[in-house]
Amino acid sequence: MRRNLLHFGYKELHYEIREIVAVAEEVASFGRTIYYENIGDPVAKGEFLPAWMKDIIKDALSEDSVYGYAPSKGLKKTREYIASHSHNTTPDDIIFFNGLWEAINKIYGYLDGPSRVLGPSPAYPTHSSSEAVNSGSDHLTYTLDPYNHWNPNLEEIENKVRYNPNIVAILVINPDNPTGAVFDREVLEGIISIAKRYNLFVIFDEIYEKLVFDAKDHILLSEIIGDVPGISMKGVSKELPWPGARCGWIEVYNADKDENFRAYINSIYMSKMLEVCSTTLPQYVIPIIYEDARFAPYLAERIQNYKARAEKVGEVFWRIPGVVYNAPKAAYYVSIVLEPALFDLSRVWPVSNPDLERYIQDKLVNIWAFDKRFCYLLLAHTGICVVPLSGFNALCQGFRMTLLEDDLEKFDFIIHSLEKFIRLIHR
Predict the structure, then answer these.
(1) Any idea what DSSP says for residue 329?
(2) 2 is a domain residue
(3) Per DSSP, which regions of 162-280 are E strands?
(4) Partners of 399 in beta bridges
(5) Does the N-terminal or the C-terminal CB of the chain have fewer CB atoms within 10 Å?
């Protein structure tokens, strides 16, 4: 090429959640059965929209309007419905996107190059990679402490903000992915206070807001934002479940309080105008499904299932020395921390298939992170596919698994196979 084609931040693109699938597929080619615990796709695990929701969607398909363009911000009736169930939000403050990935990409992509967003570690890769790509350097993070229920340290956040004038925003994922944490009001209000003191805006990814195990634990950004500029990110892909709908939105708060923030939000909106609109059908059915009398009990049953599976995981892992387990409070993930000093991966018995053993050993040659080596060896020995926490930009070592397996016999097999493998490598 006459010029270099690569974006300066391309090396920051990482998504271990799907990257490990390529290894799992190779392992499967040697005859190993794979148990995919890497990705939060409820449909892939056998959770489907109930018949009554499908009927609503079928009825909507008879409406000619769902085949046309929606307004650039989204369908007015749906935005009015969302605003009526939120604090401090008007329909004009809501913008729909083709999934939250698009919203994330635009939120970081329309910041000027030097501007940085401080995010949590462990980080969700879509956020951390998008922010890092835009800046061309490693994602800036604050630590979620596994020894303190995954809570962040507000002093650390403030120090990083104070000494880096390029930080313009703080990202909070609440409920959190990958940890399943739900942060207390004091923590969230502390982050809002820091943003106010240093003239920042905040971004809250609240995609799992409807999957909190105990509703009283969850504080929405709209309840505590005050007069600080902010963005909440939401969508339908988790609670319906309908990830293929590619339907997410942002709620913007206090754009009128800061001229520069208002212009930034307008740049995001103008970019949406170039695309004409986001998906019309899921927008159309959102109010109908959410207002149906069957929705609340349907959601409550799913939440109870995830909570029960999380308790099963806790019963197994809390008693293993060197394992740090924090009971998740939302969503369908649990992150297990391993203390590397207490484990020895060389204690693993050779894989019964010599070709598979050679493949895995070749893969391990250039992998130094303990938890990534753990996940590859776990795949080879058990077929269980989990994601190393280092793949979430985490300083701690461990893995994330899902709570989506609906076959309880299989779920028990998976968690007890994990326990057996971990005990095998214990020093």
Answers:
(1) -
(2) no
(3) 167-173, 201-205, 230-235, 248-253
(4) 336, 388
(5) N
CATH of the domain at 19: 3.90.1150.10
* Beta bridge mates, 326: none
Same domain, 310 and 247: no
pLDDT band at 357 (very low <50, low <70, confident <90, very high): very high
Rounded to an integer, the average pLDDT of 20-31 is: 94
- Residue 103: both structure tokens together: 């919203």
Sequence-separated (6 or more) residues with CB below 8 Å from residue 334: 180, 310, 313, 325, 327, 328, 400, 401, 403
pTM (two decimals): 0.95
Residues 218 and 269 in one domain: yes
Residues with Cβ < 8 Å from 226, sequence gap 6 or more? 192, 196
Side chain identity, residue 77: K
- CA 274 from chain centre, in angstroms, equals 27
Tokens of 236: 């339908």
The mean pLDDT value for 241-270 works out to: 95
Residue type, 317: F
Structurally, the chain folds into a number of domains equal to 2
Together in a domain, 195 and 243: yes
Mode of pairing for the β-strands spanning 323-325 and 248-253: unpaired
Phi then psi for residue 411, to 5 deg, are -60, -45
Q: Which secondary structure element, helix H or strand E, spans residue 295, and what is its range?
A: helix 295-317
